Amino acid sequence: MREQCSFLGCVVTKKLDSFYVGLLSEAIFIFCCNGYDSFVFSLNKGFNTQVMFFNPVFLVREASISRIDRQDKYQRILRAGITVFARRGVFRATISEIAREAGVADGTIYLYFKNKDDILARFFAGRTEEIFARFRKAIDGADTAREKLFRLVSCHMEAFQEDREMAVVFQAETRKIHAMACQVNDISARYRDLIAEIIEDGQAEGVIRKELYIALVKRFILGAVDEVVNTWVLAEGKYDLVSMAEPLVDLFMRGIGSASAE
Amino acid sequence: MREQCSFLGCVVTKKLDSFYVGLLSEAIFIFCCNGYDSFVFSLNKGFNTQVMFFNPVFLVREASISRIDRQDKYQRILRAGITVFARRGVFRATISEIAREAGVADGTIYLYFKNKDDILARFFAGRTEEIFARFRKAIDGADTAREKLFRLVSCHMEAFQEDREMAVVFQAETRKIHAMACQVNDISARYRDLIAEIIEDGQAEGVIRKELYIALVKRFILGAVDEVVNTWVLAEGKYDLVSMAEPLVDLFMRGIGSASAE
Amino acid sequence: MREQCSFLGCVVTKKLDSFYVGLLSEAIFIFCCNGYDSFVFSLNKGFNTQVMFFNPVFLVREASISRIDRQDKYQRILRAGITVFARRGVFRATISEIAREAGVADGTIYLYFKNKDDILARFFAGRTEEIFARFRKAIDGADTAREKLFRLVSCHMEAFQEDREMAVVFQAETRKIHAMACQVNDISARYRDLIAEIIEDGQAEGVIRKELYIALVKRFILGAVDEVVNTWVLAEGKYDLVSMAEPLVDLFMRGIGSASAE
Amino acid sequence: MREQCSFLGCVVTKKLDSFYVGLLSEAIFIFCCNGYDSFVFSLNKGFNTQVMFFNPVFLVREASISRIDRQDKYQRILRAGITVFARRGVFRATISEIAREAGVADGTIYLYFKNKDDILARFFAGRTEEIFARFRKAIDGADTAREKLFRLVSCHMEAFQEDREMAVVFQAETRKIHAMACQVNDISARYRDLIAEIIEDGQAEGVIRKELYIALVKRFILGAVDEVVNTWVLAEGKYDLVSMAEPLVDLFMRGIGSASAE
DNA sequence: CATGAATGAGTCTTCATTCAT
DNA sequence: TATGAATGAAGACTCATTCAT
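Predict the joint structure of the above. Result:
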């Protein structure tokens, strides 16, 4: 969608459709006029090469657009961080690339975060609360242990499928034993706690064997789910992850052995 | 490392070093005679993959010569690399630290390896063959699919327990989606192939359900084993990993459900 | 370097820097207004080749703003590079020494140039245009071929005498057959084209012999001029180079033979 | 030309034609026998990948081959140095590459030369004597100054054409103002002395103008010759350089001006 | 003498972080 | 607050030179 208008005697090309509204709602102008013609330059740093041309009338209208506030910038950096971590890996990601992705200056990152690792830590800290709240809600709405297990696994897969970048980063960094270990292990631990709870419910119900070694069962389930998610991540999300939940829970409950073999 | 001997009336200097014992246990000679004296060229570069066989007569003589020189350094750097990778993570590890750990100068690393990644790649390339040979042997010695699965898992855990540093690095790098992915994914793929093979055996035996979605089962098993190993790694190897194999395989076969619940 | 002004009722911050004066003498603005305040983005990277023209009204205002910031640093590094190249030779010059000479940090060099060779390449790319423009102007102002040849040689010597460091680097690198060859050979080729043109003019005038082998004549002249310049360079510029032009052109025209000998 | 023979019960392949006789006359053996078969490896360090296989009978014969003596090694390194300098440029050449080219060990170079520059310096020191002796002889055999000039230029071109590697290195390094300057300038100075001598002869003969500025004439001639040689070097020696001598000397004597213009 | 593995100083290059504007 | 140019510490890699054999 382009539109021609006049500005100070110059013909100005106005291009609106390419503006990245989702990320950036303030106006950005690049006037390129030499009295004869005008043209557009892409801003290749931090603005996703999107460019708008305005005339004065439009300037007035833009005046009512809310400015970028702290909160917005904080969130934008957080998301940009995960995007870049997913793209390059945490170690290879640079502050510059995150800043460019977020549309802020390099230095601005340091107004909101201590350093690169802090972006990752705070992202997961925030998402963890949110996701575990969903887990809790899903489990609480079920009656049987089997159903609870199904809802947990299902919900896990749903959350990762919704935010593939997060899934990539999480799966890739989960095994990083050094930096970030506490943060991420903490998440796994909480996940395992939920499983333990469900196991105990199941044992009370009589649908789960009582002699099981709980610590192992927790890892058995987490490991299997994790691997299935990881495979999906590596496959670049080309199939539906959640549909794996039902057969996976079936494996958890019945194992691979045939009844006759028991 | 050098020894003078007589061969067909020529004085021959014999020098043995520079070769990987693991790959090559035979002697390598280069005689350079010009009628007055003779000397040896050591094959120091570019011969890593070359294998030369000598006449048994010579082998006997060679048998008493120790082979530690370059061989030793190559292995020391390899081990130092894994030690440092386990300590710092592959990315944070520096060539300087590996050199210090190996007790050599920085530049020496580059006489044996292309770069940091090459150390990792060659380590796994070497170990992979060895470990899968053990897997194969373990499986081939078993009669039932259940026993095969048990031996595979057991053998996996044994191998990792024997070399905890390798386990740390492997678990940490397994999920790295970017660099090294091919190397490590290849290993996982081969592992899954073994599982698939066992599953099919079990289905033929009638002890494993026939309607299973194999691709999922493979990941179900690998993921669970992997997570159990990973937990052991994070626990700094304080308990016996192999004793987890039996209950784990039990979970694979019977699941967590009680018979009455089916 | 910043200035507040009013433009159509908006407060506009104007920042001018970052651009090569030699390439671009117009003003560049990026207005970012969101209704509350407005600010400027400096176009710091990737815009070297982009040229934007402003309305003359703005140009007048801009005229009073000094442009030394990045411009200055770019030029300082360029000059420091040539100084160090002249002092040590291109190969022996180090980035550190150039940075020290320019009074910037090592890393700063990489904000302006790709690497060491890029400094040399961009220096000559810039000077080539300028110098050949002078050559062209000098030649066009002359009537006879002899006069043209004189002016070309004269102008060449003048340019080198003005910037001895450039002369040193150029003479030293001209013969480097490997790196930079294209850049520098290209310059020589253009020089020879000018000579060929003059020769042809002279032939038309009847003052230059018609049976000459032009390819040889071009090298005959270029080589002689080049050697005379080179001698002057090695003599550390202790005499007037340009005064060599007249007798040199005389040699070109008449040779060393006496008329009686012909 | 391969020949099969038997050695200690092994079949041995003997290959004689690929031996680099010119550089290396001692025998080099690589036995590759495992009791079943034998094969050839190329020695890729320092021996141009040439390999011979001998049997004991042949060993006896080799015993009469003269050993490599100091002189031979010195000359081989000298030549290898020029070859590598011509290929890579003096700065980019490494001691390792020169050693490989010469078929000696890196350390051996330091038994004969102080360092890399010393190889270059000693090469030119040696060739200078030889070449100037030829120049002298050529000049002394001529009667007229014109003929002398022609023989000098001709001889120069002949010498360079005979040893193109030397020509490449000389032309490339001539203009290096820093290292080597004294060495190379010294050569040019001696060359110019010869020219001056010829000029003076010519003036006595009356075929060369008496009012000439000798210092300029010397550079005029040297520069032109040098440039013509350089062009030939860059053209990779695809045409006959010496045939340029006659028309070049004609330009020196008569210039480019037509008689009518005088 | 000859060797070439080993050394480590020296260089280029990247990038997290700072700070003047 | 926001900026991004500037910084310089840190790391990878090269290669001339040494020295034990």
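Residues 1-69, 177-181 of chain C have pLDDT under 50 and may be disordered.
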